[in-house]
Amino acid sequence: MIVIPNDNDQVSPPTGTKTVAGVRPSGALSDYTSRLMSSRPGIMAQGGTLFEELGFYYVGPIDGHKLDTLVPVLENVRDMPGNKPVLIHVKTEKGKGYPPAEASLDKYHGVARFDVGTGKQHKSVSQTPSYTSVFSKALIAEAEHDRKVVAITAAMPGGTGLNIFGERFPKRCHDVGIAEQHAVTMAGGMECEGYKPFCCIYSTFLQRGYDQLIHDVSIQKLPV
Hints:
The protein is of the alpha/beta class. It has two domains: about 1-105, no CATH class; about 130-220, Rossmann fold (3-Layer(aba) Sandwich). It contains ten helices and seven strands. The strands form two sheets. Strands 1, 2, 3 and 4 form a four-stranded parallel beta sheet that branches. A three-stranded parallel beta sheet has the order 6-5-7, sandwiched between helices. Helix 3 (about 65-80) links the parallel strand 3 (about 55-65) and strand 4 (about 85-90). The two termini are about 40 Å apart.
C-alpha cells in the first residue's frame, strides 16, 4: 500500500488562517502546538516520526512540482521489496503556475467555465436565490433580535453561508477547522449553556460526527 498526502497547507481555503469575516479556526490544541512550534523550533520531531510510529516507511518531504524528482521516487517505491506500507510526503502549492489561482486560493477550489488569460469565471446567473443565501440571510435575521443565536462550521464558512454571518457577527461565528465531531459536541455544549447553536456541516462530512450527533445531541434531546 502506498499513501500519498498532498500537503499544501489547506483544504478549500488555507488552514489556520482567518476567513473574510475575520474568523480564525479555533482549537486549544492547535493554538498550543502552534505557539510551541514557533517559540521553540527545534522541539518537534522530524516529519516522518509520526508516520513511522504508525507503521509506514516514510519518504519525503518531496517537492510535488518537480516531476524529475517525483517520478523516480514513485518508481522506486513501486519496485521496493516487501509489503510494508509506504507514505510519500508530497509538498505542493495550490494553484502553482497559474497566477490568478495563486492570488486567490479559495476561489479556484471548484471552478466554472473561466477565461484562461484573466482567470475570470463565467458563472450563470440564476433567477432564484440559492438555498445557501436564503439560509444565511434568515440566520442573520434571527441573530439580529436574539443574541443567543450562534453559528458553527467545520472549515466550510463559504460553502455553508456562514462567511456572511461571520461578517455581521464575528464573535458569534465559530470555525473549528476540520473537526466535525468537535463542531457537533460543541454545539450541544453551547445549547446546554443557553445558546441557540446552528451547526452547519455538509452531509458528506457529517458522517465524521454521527456518533456525536447521536450521543451528544439526539439522545440528550438538545435543539441544535
